Automatic annotation (TrEMBL), chains A, B:
Entry-linked SMART domains: MoCF_biosynth (SM00852)
InterPro entries (UniProt xref): CinA, CinA-like_C, CinA_C, CinA_KH, Competence-induced_CinA, MoaB/Mog-like_dom_sf, MoaB/Mog_dom
Gene source species: Dokdonia donghaensis DSW-1
Coiled coil: none
Name assigned to this protein: CinA-like protein
């Protein structure tokens, strides 16, 4: 089954928001065997919507539309769907009841006329219940294409996809199986990897595609395939994995299916019954945020400190000022003390620290922009690692956090 | 001038990455008076690329393409451009010199054959120098349309847009002026706002569009207009702003042109020569990360603590355990102590804290999911504020940080 996604909203086309809905929808469709052929973002403009609907219908079996379902005048998707399907809006009592319920239970304010209009839906649409908002999802079948329209608010759309759209698609259609396997590597550029695995790539069966995705000091290699039989795909993927792994042994970190790197580390910590504490300087809280953005961090994370100012490294983290004077605040010695002291303060099993200069200009030390030290303290001792991360602030921070996570993973695996 | 953006890459269509390039490109084009008509994301598939190029050319004057320029086999944009323009690849000496220089100075590894192929470009293309990578940008004029092809790596693409594409577009074309004004509001839903400002909306001149953008406890109202004369637009926008502001006085926070809320707060802190320290529990480092992701935070940020575990609130932040026993760790009293103690520990002018339960399940307290207390301490005393933020973890955290930033802004403005 081939799908297209149409996201509607002026805010996307003027760059006021990043369209994250498309990536989410693509990823969950992919998991149930629906491949996305095109993603199109357009303004709230009737003629353009009609053109995009027709173009998508001519190419695919499933058209997923988000946005333009709000109660205000700038939202025109519902009226345009009526025009496209030669249909009319009619009052849907179950939607009206749901909107009334939401206002009574959650909004706790009187319902306005505009809110009631949310219950007007095209007569040809089947309703998909939106638990988190007043705009219902709509499922409209026309010739051989299914149109699904959902609000653009991400958590409402996600609720609709999970609770309504995906189960219905799986029930109604016989979907093939799509399989991706993504190998995370670090320390080598994509051209060098391509040269090294050239023979492997040339010998890949035509049914398997290989892609290279470079980002923040790593390259992801993705093998993709699809077909009607899961067994066959998995066997073929296992064969190729077995061929590829020895070729990239020295640069391979893990599979992406294991989750984000911080999730891999989190799982290792929980499995080994270990806790961590974090002391961040140049990474400014991004390391702890990587852990806490997922639920369950309280199982292994004792806490963290961001000691941005040099004085706070001394006052709060107890770094020895004579060490700072002697070696500079951006040094292996300071990174080590930060890691050890964070571990001691928070009474954790592991302490990890960053100190460096992410730029754009020099800070409390003379260290060149991009210089980063990472300290790792355990019961067995402390190590500090030196890196040059380039001169682009966001990338320096992102690469430093990735590197710290890799060091954490290695030390947990090694020391158990 | 009307533009379309085409982003190329299987990783977008399977949802492995979020396409952030389009939002960036749209936003910077908009600022120089180019409006984006459509954004299209497609796979690395020759037939589909050709179809998308033709469709975009038929609708617009400018087609901006990102992605598919890597040195590996999955990247086919350059060959497809040749086919589309009936052109051939030829070796460009200046690109080859640049690639050779990058390898010598930065990569410090021998150049591979694959890297040299980066210097093969369509003969009809003018080269745009990519300071940050080996794939050059390309500018191809065909009939009345300009095609621009850039690599998909965000920082390479951004460098090309800033240094090459935008200046050239401004030089070569007479562009109109596009003006947006975005009003940030909080505390009222979009329908209620729409009802309140209905007369204003109905009386808006046809040249000005109004949009409502709800997100994380706020609604942004955006007025947009465009035309050849900046003066005329600014005058008209000033008139409408003067009409709208009194209608939303009680819910208005500021204009979006002032930057992200944390940037507004950062500027206020620097202007008032004040420093802050942050103690976070339920927000898990996201507040400090909002500040440190921008440069220059060391001017006003002394540091932060994430005290996730209750014991670390006692050990490190010095919260009184009897207060925790009496009022629970999620309470106004604990929030107040956290803010006061963070201020004292870091020797800052202001201390701000969060404690609450972001979910998904209950933590170290019995507080209902969504319960959040925010403490603000200054030299004049401490206040704690109670909120119910719903039951969606990411939204609870996001709304809490927004609310904390609003409280910070208010206190700096008030106490100066």
């Amino acid at each position: 089954m081939k799908a297209e996604i149409i996201t509607i909203g002026d805010e996307i086309l003027i760059g006021q928001i990043v369209d994250t809905n498309s990536a989410y929808i693509s990823s969950v469709l992919n998991k149930i065997g629906v491949s996305v052929y095109q993603i199109t973002s357009i303004q709230d403009d009737k003629a353009h919507l009609l053109e995009a609907f027709a173009a998508a219908q001519s190419r695919t079996d499933l058209v997923i539309i988000t946005g333009g379902l709000g109660p205000t005048k700038d939202d025109i998707t519902k009226h345009t769907l009526c025009e496209y399907f030669n249909d009319e809006l009619e009052l849907n009592q179950s939607v009206l009841d749901h909107v009334t319920y939401l206002f009574k239970e959650y909004v706790k304010k009187p319902m306005l006329e505009a809110n009631k209009t949310q219950a007007l839906v095209p007569s040809k649409a089947q309703i998909l219940v939106n638990k988190f908002g007043t705009a219902p999802g709509m499922w409209i079948e026309d010739k051989d294409t299914v149109f699904i329209s959902m609000p653009g608010v991400p958590y409402e759309m996600k609720g609709l996809m999970e609770n309504e759209v995906l189960p219905r698609l799986q029930e109604q259609f016989k979907l093939p199986y799509i399989l991706h396997k993504t190998f995370l590597t670090y320390g080598m550029g994509e051209s060098a990897i391509a040269e090294r695995i050239e023979t492997f790539e040339n010998e890949l069966p035509a049914t398997i595609k290989l892609a290279y995705l470079p980002s923040l000091g790593r390259v992801r290699l993705r093998l993709s395939t699809s077909g009607p039989e899961q067994d066959v795909l998995e066997k073929e993927m296992a064969i190729q994995t077995k061929k590829l792994l020895p070729l990239i042994d020295d640069i391979f970190i893990g599979f992406e299916s294991d989750g984000e790197l911080e999730e891999v580390v989190a799982k290792l910590l929980v499995d080994h019954n270990k806790t961590i504490a974090i002391a961040e300087s140049c990474t400014g809280g991004q390391m702890v945020e990587r852990f806490t953005k997922h639920g369950g961090a309280s199982q292994y994370l004792k806490g963290s400190l961001v000691t941005y100012a040099t004085q706070s490294k001394i006052d709060i983290l107890g770094v020895d000022p004579t060490v700072i004077d002697k070696h500079s605040v951006v040094s292996a010695e300071v990174a080590s003390q930060m890691a050890v002291n964070a571990k001691r303060l928070y009474k954790s099993d592991i302490g990890i620290s960053t100190t460096g200069n992410a730029g754009p200009s020099k800070g409390d030390s003379d260290a060149e922009v991009g210089t980063v030290y990472i300290g790792v303290a355990t019961d067995k001792g402390v190590t500090a690692h030196h890196f040059m991360m380039g001169n682009h602030r966001k990338r320096v921070i992102g690469k430093s956090v990735n590197k710290a996570l890799e060091l954490l993973r290695d030390v947990i695996r090694k020391e158990g």
